[in-house]
Amino acid sequence: MNKGVGWSSPERQQHRFRIFAGLFANVRSDHLVINDLGCGYGAMFEAYANLPQFERGRYFGYDISREMLAQAKSHIRDKRASFILSHEATRDADYSFVSGSYNIKMYAGDSEWLEFVLDNLTQLWSRTHSGLAFNMMSIHAPEKHPTLYYADPRIFLAFCRRVLSPDSRLFDSYDDREWTIFVRRQCLGD
């Protein structure tokens, strides 16, 4: 597997995974549990499989495409990886990621899609112990496709800070087409 699903290039997909890995870069554990919502064929698992934090970890990949999950299961035989047919996380994890899935609205209206994404983020956060990262296409992207959702990062950052955790940060300087938000649980005493 070398082409990202819906990605303009495999390099952009791997760049995203490196950005997301920054969420747990300073973690000393070797048994992280990860939720990957919209996992496709499991490229995120392959990107993280050899990281020290994941040596004895678990990965739960979720997707709504039976074909993608079948491809992931046939390609990845690592006992740390499980692939689940679902549009939401069903397992608790230390870290949860959504890499590109919130961009694909197909024929839903923008307000309907916004409501779905916010509800889905809230559900995913309920299954996340330490941190969550997601990316979306920017409303400021120079070119737009009618089946993709282009989001205002300020709306999502305000939502994350108000509903999920005050410790939410926006990263939007790496690309004019998209942005990423990290959300972290606050520890007692913070």
Give an overview of the whole structure.
There is one protein chain. The chain has one domain: Vaccinia Virus protein VP39 (Rossmann fold). It is 30% helix and 24% strand. It contains five helices and eight strands, in the order αβαβαββαββαββ. Strands 1, 2, 3, 4, 5, 6, 7 and 8 form an eight-stranded mixed β-sheet that branches. Helix 3 links the parallel strand 2 and strand 3. The N terminus is likely disordered.
Task: Offer a concise description of the structure.
With 190 residues, this protein is of the alpha/beta class. 30% of the residues lie in helices and 24% in strands.
| Fourth CATH level, the homologous superfamily | Vaccinia Virus protein VP39
Broad CATH class: Alpha Beta
Number of strands: 8
Amino-to-carboxy terminus distance: 42 Å
CATH architecture: 3-Layer(aba) Sandwich
> How many domains?
1
What's the order of the H and E elements? HEHEHEEHEEHEE
Helix amount, in percent? Answer: 25-40%
Largest sheet: 8 strands, mixed
CATH topology: Rossmann fold
Backbone CA Rg: 16 Å
- What would you call the shape? globular
Residue ranges: pLDDT <50 for 5 or more in a row?
1-7
Record keyword descriptors for this entry.
190 residues; alpha/beta; Rossmann fold; eight-stranded mixed beta sheet; 5 helices; disordered N terminus
What secondary-structure arrangement, pairings included, does this model have?
Blueprint: H1 10-21, E1 33-37, H2 43-48, E2 58-63, H3 66-75, E3 81-85, E4 93-98, H4 110-126, E5 128-138, E6 150-151, H5 153-164, E7 168-171, E8 178-184
Parallel strand pairs: 1-2, 1-4, 2-3, 4-5, 5-6
Antiparallel strand pairs: 5-8, 7-8
